[in-house]
Every structure is written in structure tokens, then in C-alpha cells.
């Protein structure tokens, strides 16, 4: 384990002890990004749009938290983490999405020996827990891969309306669906032969061939039309191993 990761883990454990938790595996954790406006670097944006969406909003174990919040290739951690705790509920970690070197984290709040952890979190934990299913569907649709954790939350099926609502929300934040279209290859388990594309100038949507975005299957669509076309042709009655309930 890298030295920064070791220190981060030690501070996390000390913060939990302050809350009366000595066994890090006796509780679960939910990470949520802050809604506060922050000044982001290009690297922060990469984390915000491509890393955090793969784990936020669902229950994680201690090791998952440490691995997800320590960015090895940049040797960085969140600038601050506000901890909210309620007995017999998951611990909610509201994180800054500015990932910085350990020395910068300490310099920001030198009087806090637990930095980046702050124990004055005021998140409504019940509300966060109630959105876990929706977050799990969002993660499933973002990664297009069903892992054990996501299946434990979702069970064996998702509804057509859940798919539509999550696709709508996805397209509010990303131009394409799937978002990671540049990294998919024919034959991959999560490959999609069709891409939803929002045009910059008009705001209209088109359905394109994944191998050639210039080849439009349908064009000049509004959002719900694009979503319904995509579901009809790419999802139908099953998505990533889950039954789609109509």
C-alpha cells in the first residue's frame, strides 16, 4: 500500500473510532459528491465524469472506499470528506471532487488531525439510502456491466420506466449514450452497436452507428424519441442479465 494510501486509511479509521466504530467492516459506506460549487481542474473533471459515477450512491465496504477515493496514478485524495453517521445506517461520505496531494489537504486545515475527514456532516442519511436503487440502475447503465453488488441491490429485474428515467438523466449530463463509446469494442460484453448522440448546435438527438457516427440511423429526434428507439432496438426485454418489466 502506498504511503499516502496508508495515511489516508489510518485517518479514516481514526475518524470512525471518534464515532465509536472500531470494526471498519461492521458498517457500510455511501459516497456522494458534494453539491457545492468548486473550482475544478481538468483532472478533477475526469474524476467527476468518469470515475465517481461508477461508485457513488450505493453501499460500499471499507476497502472499496479507500480504493475508490485514493487515486494512485496521481497520488491524490479528496480535499475534504464530510462524514454523516446515524446508528444502524450506512455512513455517508460527502466528498469534495477536487483531488489533491496529501500535503495540500493538510495545509487546507492544519488544525484538523483527521483531515481530510470532517465529522460535522449533516446529510439526510435516510434520503440517501432511499435513492440507492436508482443509483444502482444509473451505475449499471453507465458501466453496462452487472456485478454482484449491483445485482444484490436490484434483484432480477428493472422496469421500463426506470430505464427511461435513468437514460433521461444520463443525457442531461453526457452527450452520448453509452458515454464510454470510444472504449467499447465489437465482441465486448457491454458493446452497443447503436449510439445516442445529441447535436451541439440544435440540441436534437440522433441514433448513430457505433462504428461510424456519421452514419445516422435516425435523426432530428427529441430526447424521449431517441430513448424509446434505443430501448426498442438495443434493450427490449433484457438488459445486462436483468429482465426488463414492461
Helix segment count? 9
Q: Measured on Cα atoms, how large is the radius of gyration?
A: 20 Å
How much of the residues is beta strand, in percent?
Answer: 15-25%
The total beta strand count reads 14
Helix amount: 25-40%
Outline, from the CA principal axes? Answer: globular
Structural class: alpha+beta
Q: Biggest sheet, open or closed, and with what strands and sense?
A: 5 strands, mixed
Q: Strand order, main sheet: write it out.
A: 2-1-5-4-7
Overall pLDDT: 94
State the end-to-end CA separation.
47 Å
Any idea how many domains? Answer: 2
Poorly predicted ranges? none
Could you spell the SSE succession in H and E letters? HEHEHEEEEHEHHHEHEEEEHEE
Provide structural commentary:
The strands form four sheets. Strands 2-1-5-4-7 form a five-stranded mixed β-sheet. Strands 9-10-11-12 form a four-stranded antiparallel β-sheet, covered by helices on one side. The mean pLDDT is 94. The longest helix has 16 residues, at 3-18. A hairpin with a 6-residue loop joins strand 4 (81-84) and strand 5 (91-95). Helix 6 (132-143) packs across helix 8 (160-173) and helix 8 crosses helix 9. The protein has helices at residues 3-18, 42-51, 62-69, 102-108, 125-130, 132-143, 148-154, 160-173, 223-235, and strands spanning 29-33, 59-60, 77-78, 81-84, 91-95, 99-100, 117-118, 157-159, 176-177, 194-198, 205-209, 212-221, 238-239, 242-245. The radius of gyration is 20 Å and the shape is globular. It has 246 residues and is an alpha+beta fold. The chain has two domains: 3-130, no CATH class; 143-245, no CATH class. It contains nine helices and 14 strands.
